Amino acid sequence: MAVLEVKDLHVEVVDQEKKISKEILKGVNLTVKTGEIHAIMGPNGTGKSTLSETIMGNPRYHVTSGQILLNGENIVGMPVDERARKGLFLAMQYPAEVPGVTNTEFLRAAINARRPKDNPVPIREFLQELDKNMDLLDMKQSMTERYLNEGFSGGEKKRNEILQMLMIKPSFGILDEIDSGLDIDALRVVARGVNAMRGDNFGALMITHYQRLLDYIVPDVVHVMMGGKVVKDGGPDLAKKLEDEGYAGLRDELGLDIELVDEN
Amino acid sequence: MVNTEVDFWEKRRQAALAAYETGKLPYIQRFHYQDWTLFDETQPLASDSGLLDQALLKTDPQQIKIVQFGKSTILIQVPEKLLQAGLIVCDLKTALKEHPDLIEKYYMTQVIKPDENKLLSYHAAFCEAGLVIYVPAKMELAEPIEVELVGDATRKQPWLHHLLLIAGANSSLKFVQHLSTIGEQPQIANLVAEVVAGPNSHIEFSSLDEVGKNTTLYFNRRANLDADSHLEWNCAFMNDADSIGDVCSELVGQGSYGYSKAIAVTAGDEQMAVNNLVINRGRHTTGLINQRGVLLDNSKLIFNGIGQIVHGASGSKADQKNRVLMMSDNAHGDANPLLLIDENDVVAAHAASVGPVDPVQMNYLMSRGIPYPKAERMVIHGFLDAVLSGMPKGMVRDRMLTILERKLIHGQRQRFSEV
To answer: Where's the SUF system FeS cluster assembly SufBD core domain (chain B) (predicted)?
Structure first.
């Protein structure tokens, strides 16, 4: 069993224009184990994406204090590629486009990065696995030779993120708003991919704004983030309650002094 | 001299010699090369084919393949049925004997003129080696014409070469050349290519330039495009030599289309400047430029993209992109777009950028576990893709990818402990 722990994590980002840094995460605590699916919900601007990017190691985000432990090892300061090889995967909200690099080439490089140099993945084995996973996600064969995310629709990009996760088989998948911008059919397909990974060797942290995703990927634990902190934990019912009462309702119930971005 | 019977040839060379004596070096924006050695009036000697990598000489009977080494022609292979259909492939000397009319009509008369600058006058006065290819009207070549041009730097001697490629009306061809050198002696190279694109012809001209370190290279590649013709340049500049040169498309005929793609990877102390020109003269012509440079170590690279639409070329389009990636703090790069427009009814655009590899792309690739150096090479491959994927499959393309990988890894070793 693998464990991902976030302990009292404080993170700031530097505003490139104003040249000032701003604290986004103000002491996040969280533990995810393989075999579990966690959902993080929260209003806009509350630090959900910052949390996922920071766990993965995007150099734009600076950890000012606290720890991120993967199986007991503090990975703060570890480069993003090393974290990935240790078992973390981030399905991004806005995946980058890399023209000139085909999907297949990219996936093979990613898989081979985890294997000894003199023992790359056999091509036949790779292609069988690829076919199987593309079928699961209703993806067209032509996607393999297209350039990585270039000209992909929003839905195609999200499927492609899940395809990578299925191929790479990380211990932990962090899914950053994979439901945003998806119609219901595409959402079902994406959920099918994530659910296929459920099992003892996989844990997930799903970041979402909407409860809708959780109808398709039922979480074991729901966390609510507000103002850069986790303010409440619960089961799937918590998500439903939020859907009914809104984030402002929960905030008032908890007696928190936080201003929500979208509040009128 | 080449052939005393050919009267016009001798007269032209005398005129070129006079022009050479008074001529001026061409101006290259933001690049100083005036103190380079670019002229050598000594006579080159014949070269020994035994020095060549014998793999270069391998052919199969369906191939059109030419190997020239210094001033010597080592191999010309053309399938018999194409010769019978009127295809001409021969070296310059042979062309002067057997097809003087072609030389008289096309050799430095229409596309490039000897008196344009001192380097071209020198070329016209001294060049004796070359290759003449004439593709008759309506001939469509299924396989690319493969040309290996090897400079002989085992002795100090100049390397002059002239390519004349004439494509008849409605013909279609792919041309691939590979420039390389053998030997370490200092030498100058002056390589000129003229392309005559007949009406409605279709030409893809690819070049892999891999000229060695102790050579100083001047090149000039230019095409005149007749009505509705289509020409693509695919130039991969992978030299170790210092070099200057022009790639130019003259869109003369109405509806002609020229797309000039170039990539350069510079390393060490190498210096390079390229003027990539597309001139819209005819109406409804399309001229595109896409240049990508990758700079390593202490190298210097200037990409000048020049799009000119002359008065009367209405309904024309000029678009260019010049991008340079700086992979070292000590490298010096510039991408200068220049649009010269003398007509109202046109569409023109340009873009230029100089910078490091895209950090967003890097983070994405690395977030999948790909280590930094490998991710960087992938992003650079992608950056150079327009030319890499435009080169026809085969030996030259494989060679290009090998050199690219070698250069990038070498450059990375200067920066990272582990590659």
So the answer is: 157-383
Q: Provide the number of CB pairs (under 8 Å) joining chain A to chain B.
A: 78
* Listed residue (B38, B419, B33) closest to B218, CA to CA: B38
Q: Work out the pLDDT band at B264, boundaries 50, 70, 90.
A: very high
Looking at residue B332, its amino acid is H
Mean pLDDT of chain B: 94
Instruction: List the domain boundaries for chain B.
Output: 7-353
CA distances from residue A236 to A184, A197, A203, A219, B285 in whole angstroms, order as listed:
20, 19, 16, 6, 63
β-bridge pairing B130-135 and B159-167: parallel
Give me the residue from B360, B370, B372 closest to A96, CB to CB: B360
Pick from B403, B78, B57, B60: nearest CA to B208: B403
Residue with tokens 């993965």: A56
- For chain A, state the CA radius of gyration: 19
Q: Which of A229, A169, A199 is nearest to A40 (CA)?
A: A229
CB-count burial class (<10 Å; 0-12, 13-18, 19+) for A104: middle
Q: What is the pTM of this model?
A: 0.87
Residues of chain A neighbouring B290 (CB-CB closer than 8 A):
none
Beta-carbon separation of A84 and B369 below 8 A = yes
Contact B367 A92 (CB under 8 A): yes
Q: What is the pLDDT of residue B1?
A: 46
Please compute the mean of the pLDDT values over residues B357-371 and round it to a whole number.
95
Picking from A55, A61, A80, A93 by the largest number of B CB atoms within 10 A of its own CB, the best residue to mutate is A80
Percent of chain B residues past pLDDT 90, beyond the cut: 85
Taking 90 as the threshold, does the pLDDT of residue B210 lie above it?
yes
Minimal CA–CA distance to B123: which of B17, B272, B243? B17
Task: Give the residue from B323, B358, B366, B378 with the most A CB atoms within 10 Å of its CB, the best one to mutate.
Answer: B366
| A151, A184, B215, B302, B335 from B308: Cα distances, Å | 31, 51, 32, 19, 17
Of B47-61, B94-108, B303-317, least confident by mean pLDDT is B47-61
Question: Over 90: is that where the pLDDT of B352 sits?
Answer: no
Contact present, B210 and B238 (Cβ < 8 Å): yes
Fold of the domain built from segment(s) A3-93+170-254: Rossmann fold (3.40.50)
Structure tokens at B121: 């006058």
Q: Calculate what percentage of chain B has a pLDDT beyond 70.
A: 98
Report chain A residues whose CB lies below 8 A from the CB of B358. 96
Residue ranges of chain A with per-residue pLDDT less than 70: 262-264
Residue A177's region, left for phi above 0, alpha for psi from -120 to 50, else beta, is left
Q: How far is CA B61 from the centre of its chain?
A: 27
What pLDDT score was predicted for residue B391? 87
Question: For the segment B394-415, what is each residue's pLDDT rounded down to a tens digit?
Answer: 888 899 999 999 999 998 988 8
